Every structure is written in structure tokens, then in C-alpha cells.
Amino acid sequence: MASNCRSSPAAGHGRPTRLRELTPSAKLTYLVVDRAAPQRLTVAQLRERTRLADRTLRRAIADLDDAELVVRRWRVVDGSGPQREIALADRERSRQDPAGE
Predict the structure, then answer these.
(1) CA 11 – CA 19 distance, rounded (Å)
(2) In this predicted model, what pLDDT tens digit does every residue of 52-89 receive, in sequence order?
(3) Best CA proximity match to 73, nearest among 98, 91, 49
(4) Which secondary-structure segment (H or E) carries 75?
(5) Please, are residues 29 and 64 in contact by the beta-carbon 8 Å criterion?
(6) Residue 66 burial (CB count, 10 A)
(7) Runs of H (alpha helix) within 4-83
(8) Closest C-alpha among 3, 43, 37 to residue 20
(9) Considering Cα of 82, then 86, then 87, then 92, what sign does the dihedral take?
């Protein structure tokens, strides 16, 4: 029986059940972002840690964003211009709403 819920006890450690439907590269990217939390990672850091090709990594991030598992934010770095940062969506929501739900 399929379910559209974001997480379930069967998913283990609150991991979204939607993750099962994604590509291996998206799963790897999610795992790397999850292990880095609460730190946000730049795309360059993700590329280095996952060793995925640029196009594959961009697609993995887009798939995770479409599934609402990660959020992409711009960060301005002194001297080097803006960089895209990736963080887990549920942790970003809890950062923005410290009182909980």
C-alpha cells in the first residue's frame, strides 16, 4: 500500500519515504547533506564530497528540491560572489520556526 506521507517509522530515523523513489545520485546527495547538518553545504562542497559529475549533481539537487527534501539558498561570500547552499528542508523549517509547529 503506497503512502504519500513524508515520513514513517518504517522509513527509519524520520527519513522521508519519498526518498525511496529517487535516483541513487539523489539518495547519495541527500545522505551527504543529512550528515553535514546542521551545516549548509555549497554545491562545490557537495561535488567534492559526492564526486558526482556536475550535471548529475545538479539533477540530483533538483530532484530533491522537487520532492521538498532540501532547500536551496543563495549566500553572498565576501570577494567570491554568491554561492548556492543546500540544506535539509525539515531542518530549515525548524530554524525559521524555533517554537516548533
Answers:
(1) 9
(2) 999 999 999 999 999 999 999 887 766 677 788 999 98
(3) 91
(4) strand 70-77
(5) yes
(6) 12
(7) 24-36, 43-50, 54-66
(8) 3
(9) positive
Mean per-residue pLDDT, 21-47: 95
pLDDT digit string (tens) for 42-56?
999 999 999 999 999
Q: Which residues contact 82 (CB under 8 A, 6 or more apart)?
A: 74, 75, 76
What's the mean per-residue pLDDT of the chain? 80
Task: Give percent above pLDDT 70 in the chain.
Answer: 69
Which residue reads 527534501 in cell numbers?
Answer: 69
Q: β-strands 70-77, 81-88: how paired?
A: antiparallel
**How many other CB atoms are found less than 10 A from the CB of residue 73?**
11
Q: Are 43 and 53 in contact (CB under 8 A)?
A: no
**Residue in this structure with the C-alpha cell 545522505, named with its chain if needed:** 31
Dihedral of the alpha carbons of 80, 38, 52, 28, in degrees to the nearest 10: -170
Round to whole Å and give the CA distance between 28 and 2.
23
DSSP state of 32: H
